[in-house]
Amino acid sequence: MKKLVLVVALLLQVSCQQQDSEKADIQSIRQLLNTQATAWSNNDIEGFMEGYYQSDSVAYFGSGGVRYGYKTMLEGYKERYPTAAHTGKLEFTIHDITRISKDAYWVMGEYHLTRTVGNANGTFMIVLKRMNGVWKIIGDSSC
Minimal CB count within 10 Å: which of 3, 56, 85, 96? Predict the structure, then answer.
């Protein structure tokens, strides 16, 4: 009986530690998204892109199909959003942040751009991976 109580106590401790870890992960992910929204709203596309993994393997899936590569994404954003009037003010509405593995999550939500050239709204799903202790977006699907 003592062994059973010990096993249950250890399992509860591990479970609580995992829940605390997930809460910290989610808080860090939310902070990354807040940082991105602030950078975007300041017409700082490079700052916005700091949330993405700087690699040729990062993927973006939108209305134009799948595009790969950090540089390709950065150039695409700069082309489609050339001025502060185009970037406007960005706000995210997060609907779900779900753990995929110890070092990966997916996030589903909405984006809202308030702009003088016309507002834009849509949905997104991103995949984040922790690399060297830092969360980076490795996949993005927006429409």
Answer: 3
Tell me the DSSP string of 8-35: HHHHHHHHHHHHHHHHHHHHHHHHHHHH
- Those residues with Cβ within 8 angstroms of residue 64's Cβ, 6 or more apart along the chain or in another chain: none
Q: What is the pLDDT of residues 53-83, one digit of tens each?
A: 999 999 999 988 999 999 999 999 999 999 9
Single pTM value for the model: 0.85
Question: Which has more confidence, 14 or 100?
Answer: 100
Sign of CA dihedral 55, 142, 23, 40: positive
- CA–CA dist 87, 90 (Å, integer): 8
Q: For the domain that residue 32 is a member of, what is the CATH number? A: 3.10.450.50
User: Where in the sequence is the domain holding 127, given as residue range(s)?
Assistant: 2-142
Residue indicated by tokens 């134009």: 64
Residue 115, exposed/middle/buried by CB under 10 A (0-12, 13-18, 19+)? middle
